[in-house]
Specification:
alpha+beta; 37% helix
């Protein structure tokens, strides 16, 4: 709960506006916001799926969208960080562990996926 509170404090409306200038941001909607993801080149950031939308393919759709954009831009792989709770999701999408780190939000896996 403490980590979630820190993330909520960090991702204020102003911070999201700042990030939207630096990165491409995408939102999936299904009766409201179902998920978000942002991208800077071949780096994935701020991937979130609302709990009511989990397991419905929203995250997979968002990831495949930004992966396709990265291919168009000439990248041969994607990289992302994942919390313990998101780790399995990325593995199911074909991402492999590169290393792990400790961040202000807790333990973080760094993962990579080669693109077609």
């Amino acid at each position: 709960m403490e980590v979630i509170e820190r993330m909520c404090d960090h991702f204020t409306e102003q911070r999201i506006k700042e990030l939207a200038i630096q990165r491409q941001m995408f939102v999936a909607e299904t009766n409201g916001i179902a998920g978000t993801v942002s991208r800077d080149g071949n780096k994935v950031y701020t991937m979130f799926v609302h709990p009511w939308a989990a397991g419905r393919g929203v995250g997979r759709l968002l990831m495949r969208h930004i992966e396709a954009l990265a291919v168009i831009d000439g990248y041969d792989h994607m990289e992302t960080g994942a919390s313990i709770t998101g780790h399995g999701f990325y593995h199911r999408l074909g991402y492999i562990d590169v290393r792990s780190t400790e961040t202000e939000f807790g333990f973080n896996y760094i993962l990579r996926r080669d693109l077609p």
